[in-house]
């Protein structure tokens, strides 16, 4: 779904800037409505700029493209336009190169100044609409070999956001339950635009010599339905044996060079990460901005060399602080969705989860100001409550006095369940430019097995980002699965806004869809969408423009073995209008048809093959070429073994052709390898006819990247050796001949230690405190010595004792009078007490049988409790002597027990009744003792 809120804020910021530029630079006073075009980051966009109607009567029109932004304009920037034989002046065709780091919103590109000989001139602003690009990739190890049963493994996956919007993803792990896989970074991960993060999956290798275990990591967008995975990675675990080393500081310097016909460019950086103490770790990323000129800078970005200049994190399992690109979520009512540079802190405070932010704007256009905010989330009996205080100040560098100011106090409550329905609500007191207003938000949702729906209403005076005069939005999403084959979905959304610059803005979208599984491998989708938007400019500009689009689309996807096939068709009716200041309205409408097919197959080590073919046909008045055909064939991840290293190759050929320009063929290739020494080498080459250098020649770019990954200070330099062994005689000390035990895992804070085959492992000498043993890693038949479990002194030698089994069978027997007790032995409690005073409770397996497993060798005294039995019984205590490997069954007799009951004398008073029905009292001789058998 399109994020209308972010797009709106970028549009409003642009409308503030445009009038300021016109005044400052002395450009022509007559300005036409802007010409806008949509373009994704790192793409080429072609647009047609028509000659203004005021100059359409001229025979010759001069044009000049005055650049005003960071978007490059390809081709001629000055020239003449002549009247064609059909009677009109030919339009101007421009090609824009969208920067690879463009964020969602509007970008000011240039002003096209048209002039005629009589002195008349009109400036037409060019606006680039950057849509939301949602692309996330996950990379990690494909295979981990030589693992040992009992090892604790942490798989680190690198998640990169290639899009220009903030991504909040849910982490899902699919693995064998015996691995006990879990994410150490929590169930969610947030990514800034073009940012990256790591997801660490911790797991335990079960006893399975030579087995393979696949681990699949999937990332699901939080605003999507369950199962809508957008990125995934898969790792194979091969169980064998491997030594475990202490964590150290990992250093990763990298450097890249790119060359083209018009110059060279270079960039580099450095990453260092590791523990600073037993419980605190850190990471630091430094990168130099690209140095050079020409198309080489574009080649550096393809190899991942161009990164954020600074990013640092410091934290532990409970708190974390980061500096650099600041990404925080303070909720819709706070009015602040920061995109800047600063510091973010997450920490628990008095039982709540606190998130604090201090940053400065990073939206470009020489803006300045600050973002500050604090949000605390804590549990309440009905759900979760969040309280946030935010302050936003931003000023534009182009238009003095223009900007935004907002202070907000927001209180929200969520996860309130009414049966299967969850609800949330919030209130906010907002101070916008000195005026106070109250905002609110209400949302309900249901996530059932078959029906999932959500609805929300948001009213935020002052706008979602403290700029607009008012904003209101409602949204509805629903999906129902009638069966395993058929599912229907629907969505609707409306946004209204307005301020002094933009009198009104409205956007509405409505869509319905159906999904049907023809077979388990074949799925058919049908979607009908309607979208419309309208913007009326305010003071200084006037006029309005908007568009309406109605589309119906269908796609079919199927799998045949390892092959995947897809086909799609979309029919659209597009209508655009623009109302001038004079009141005249220009309308245009067109029909558009888009068809496409795709084929892909994964050949495992031989790589992956992907082919796509897309044809777009646009009718007259659609503002685009009558037809355009895009074809792409890519072979990626072809892995070849060269010596002890694996070399990965990738190649792609792409053709773009349309009715306005000749066909262009784009060729790309890449290669990468990682040597055993830790050196990572990558290279790429690209020939792109749509990228022209400064001399107008076809762009050819070659780039090389070299990185080194090294670990220093492993084991924190100073270490001491400890040993885990089998204590044969149970004295708690290691005697000559007592063997070590390998594969036993111990934990201390963030450290993990695994004993070698000889039973030894190293720990930091500065470490203080007891190690925590992972009992599941101890081999079957051994147990941690009870003396060690109660020992508070740090031990160098950690004893394990061999275990045995014992079964105690309670049997009812006759007493001296030949009577058998009438009791249920399942209500008895039996335990064994060892020489150290530890008690081992038996497991009642029925029939009066109590099973004791994993008992250390030694002498035990049996103890019982008969308080829950229906009558008194006598169980004789016995002593057991267990040796390593014993499996004893012992019969324990249970007999009735006689008790003495003292009956007090019965007394009678006046008018009383004696024990035999008469009056008086009895004493002395009537007092006697009796043996009672219940």
TrEMBL record:
Keywords carried by this UniProt record: Signal
Top-level lineage group: Bacteria
Disordered: annotated segments: 902-934
UniProt protein name: Carboxypeptidase regulatory-like domain-containing protein
Residues passing through the membrane, by range: none
Organism: Pseudogemmatithrix spongiicola
Positions with biased composition (Gly residues): 908-921
Signal peptide (residue range): 1-22
Annotated Basic and acidic residues bias: 925-934
